[in-house]
Amino acid sequence: MDISLFQLFILCTTIAVVLGFGIRAARSVHSTKGFSVGGRSAGVPLVAGGIAGTCVGGGATVGTAQLAAVSGLSAWWFTIGSGVGLIIMGLFYARPLRRTALETIPQFLSQHFGLACGVFSSIISSIGILFSAVASCLPAIYIIAAIFGIPFFPATILLILAVAAYAFFGGMKSAGVGGILKMAVIWVTMAIAGIMASHSLFASPAFSAALPEGTFNLLHGDTAHILANFSSVVIGMLCTQSYIQAIFSASNPRTASVAAFTAALISLPVGLPCAMVGIYMHTAHPEITPILSLPVYLLTEQPPLLGGIAMGGIMLSLIGSIAGLSLGIGTMLSRDIFHRARVTLRARKIHKIASQPELQEIDILEIPTANHPWHLSELTVTRLIVLATIALSAFIALVNEGSQVLFWNYLSMALRSGGIFLPLSFAIFLPHTVSHRSATLSMALSTGAALAAVFLGAAGNPLFFGLAVSAICLLPCLLFRRGSGLASD
Is the pTM of this model over 0.85? Predict the structure, then answer.
C-alpha cells in the first residue's frame, strides 16, 4: 500500500494530537474510580465520546468496507445494530443502571443474584469482549504493516504501544476525550469519502453495469442470517461492560440517557460511507485484498491531505476501540475478582486477629496494604490487566490474520449476550423474580450452548442458542413468581 511521506506525516500527526489530548486528560486521574468511571462527573460529550469511540472500531469502518466488497450494502447492518442498541439503552437501561452508582455489570448482577453469578458473568463477559478487541486488532495490524512495509509481528508491537498510550494512563477520561476527537475526524472524512465513492460508482456506466444484482439491497442474501447478526449486535450493545462503564461515568441518570442517544446518532450512520467505499473498490479494483479496501481508497483516491487525516481517523477508531474494550475487561477483572479476593483475605485476617488476643495490637487498617501478598494498588492492577488484554487481543489477531473482521464482532456479541442479556434485563425490570440459582445456572448453560454452537458449526447464530437456553432456565421463575423470598436461596 503506497503512502507518500506527506500522507504519513499527516497520519502520524493526527494520531499524535488525539493521543496527546488523551494523555493530558490522564493527569487528573489518581484513583481507581477516576480511571474506570472518570470520577462520575462526565457530561454528555464525554460519555457519548467514550461509547462511540469504543463501538466505532474495526468492525464499523474497515470491517464494514471489507464485508461490503463481498456482500454489498447489507454490510451496513453492523452499525445500524449498534445505533439501535444504543437507542434502546437510552430509553430503558441507562437511567436504572446509572442510579446504582456501581462500576461494572457483574456488580449489578451480584446485588440481585449473588456473588457467584457476578464472578461468572465477569469471566464470560471478558471473553466475549476480548473477541471484539481482536476484531479491531486485525485491520490495525494489516494497515500498520502495509503503511510501513514491515512484517506483521513488529506491526503488532507498534499497535500495542499505541493502544497503551491511549488508555493505560487515563482510562475512561482519556477514552472519552479521544472518542470525541476521533469521531469528529471520522465523521467528516468518511462522509466525504462516501460521497466521492458513490459519485464514482454512479457517474460511470461501466461501474454501474458491473455491480452485482442486489448490491444496494439491505436484505440481499440470507435474510435470516442478516437479521440474526443484527439482533446479536443490538443485544450485545446492551450487555457490554465497555459501553455500560461509560454510562456509569455520567454525572447523573439523565446525562447517561441523553449520552446514549447521542452516541447512537454518531455511530449509526458511519457504516454507510464505509460500505459505499467497499462496493466501489470491489468494482474498480477487485485485485485489492478486501480488508484493505478502505485504507487503499483513502490513500490513493482522496486528496493527500484529506487521505492522511482520514487514515489517522481510521487508525484512531481501531486504537480507541481496542482501548475501550480492554478498559472494560480490566475494570471487571480488577473490581469483581481481584478486589473481592483482597476483601476476602482482609476479612480472614481480621477474623484471625479477633480470635487471637496476642495479635490484637496489629493495626487492622494496615492489613490491606502491608500484610497480604497482593501489595499492588487496585489502580495499578487495573492498568496492568488493561495492558495484558491489549497484548493478548493483538496476538490472537496476529495468529488469525486473514479472518473476517465482522466474524469476530458477531461472535463476540453472541457469546457475551447469550448468558448476560436475560438475567440483566430481569434484574432491571423484574427484580426479585429470578432466583440466584436459576440466574447462575442460566449463565453457565447458555454460555456453554453458545460455545458449543460455535465449535460444532451448528446452523444459525450462536446468540439464539444461548438465549433459548437462558430463557428455559429463567422463564419458569417468571411463570411461577415466588416474590422477594427468592433472595433466600
Answer: no
